[in-house]
Design a protein that fits this description.
alpha/beta; 268 residues; globular; eight-stranded mixed beta sheet; 10 helices
Length: 268
C-alpha cells in the first residue's frame, strides 16, 4: 500500500472533479466558503508546479438557486436555458476567487462530439496543453446549453475520466458527498466499512447505488464507470469527500484518503 500511495503522491498532471453537492447548499445557493477553499488549494498546488485541470459541475444547480427553482425543468430547452444562466454565474465566481490567489482560469465546454471527432479532439488536447504551459487552470464542463441526448456525455464523473484520459493525466480525484466506496450502504448500515483501495472494479460493482441529489446527476455507479475508464488508461483515481478539500494535500503527501482505484499500469 505504501508503494501505491507514493506513486500517487508523485502525480504531476491532476484532474479534479467537484460535483454540484460539493459546490452548493441544499438550498441550491453557492457554498462560497467551500469554493474559496477549493480555489486556494488548487492555486497553491499550481504554484508548486502541479498541472491542474478542474472539472466542475454546478451550472444548473447554481442557476436553480439564482432563479428560485425547486427542481430542474423537465424539458430540454428549459434545462439548456438554466445551464446558460448557471454557467455564466459559475465562471464569474471562479474567475473572481482564483484571481484573488493570483491564478487564471479558462473555460472549456465539451460535448461527446468534441471527443469523438478526431480533429476536434486534437484541438481540445492542444488547447488544454497550451493553457497548462501558460500556467492557467482549465475549468471543464459539459456544454449543457447545446447538449441533448444524442451528443451529451451524460454526467461529470464520466466527463472527468474522459478528460483525464484525453490529457494523459497522472491522477483523477473525484470530490463527492461521501468518503469513498463502502462495503455496504453507510446510510443503511452504520457498520459499513470504507474500502481504502480497489484493484478490480468488477469485484465491487455490486456495491454501487444510484443518484443521490436533486441538484446533481450520477452516483456510485457513474464513479465506478469513471474509475474503470481512468484505471484502464493508466490513471489512478480517488473518491474523496468534498467536505474536506485539504485532503488533496494528504493525497500528495502519500497519506490514505477515501477510496483509491489503482491504475492498471501500476506494477507492484
Amino acid at each position: 500500500m505504501d508503494e501505491i500511495l507514493h506513486d500517487v503522491s508523485m502525480a504531476h498532471r491532476i484532474v479534479i472533479k467537484v460535483g454540484t453537492s460539493t459546490l452548493t447548499y441544499d438550498t441550491g445557493k453557492m457554498n462560497l466558503k467551500r469554493i474559496d477553499r477549493l480555489a486556494m488549494i488548487l492555486s497553491d498546488l499550481r504554484n508548486q508546479g502541479k498541472e491542474i485541470i478542474l472539472v466542475s459541475s454546478g451550472a444548473q444547480g447554481i442557476a436553480m438557486g439564482k432563479l428560485g427553482l425547486s427542481k430542474k425543468p423537465d424539458d430540454i430547452k428549459g434545462k439548456q436555458a438554466i445551464a446558460a444562466v448557471g454557467q455564466c454565474e459559475l465562471m464569474y465566481l471562479y474567475d473572481k476567487v482564483f484571481s484573488y490567489y493570483n491564478n487564471t482560469v479558462a473555460q472549456i465546454l465539451l460535448t461527446r462530439e468534441d471527443i469523438a471527432i478526431p480533429r476536434r479532439k486534437r484541438n481540445i488536447q492542444n488547447t488544454v496543453t497550451t493553457l497548462l504551459e501558460m500556467g492557467i487552470i482549465p475549468v471543464v464542463n459539459e456544454n449543457d446549453t447545446v447538449s441533448f441526448d444524442e451528443i451529451e456525455i451524460g454526467d461529470n464523473d464520466t466527463l472527468s475520466a474522459v478528460v483525464a484520459d484525453l490529457v494523459d493525466a497522472d491522477l483523477l480525484v473525484l470530490f463527492s458527498d461521501i468518503d469513498g466506496l463502502y462495503s455496504e450502504d453507510p446510510h443503511k448500515n452504520k457498520n459499513a466499512e470504507l474500502l481504502p483501495v480497489v484493484y478490480d472494479i468488477d469485484k465491487v460493482r455490486s456495491l454501487a447505488g444510484g443518484a443521490v441529489t436533486n441538484r446533481g446527476t450520477g452516483g456510485m455507479v457513474t464513479k465506478l464507470d469513471a474509475a474503470e475508464r481512468a484505471t484502464n488508461a493508466g490513471i489512478h483515481m480517488i473518491i474523496a469527500n468534498g467536505n474536506n478539500m485539504d485532503a488533496l494535500y494528504d493525497i500528495l503527501n502519500a497519506k490514505p484518503v477515501g477510496t483509491l482505484f489503482v491504475s492498471k499500469n501500476f506494477e507492484q
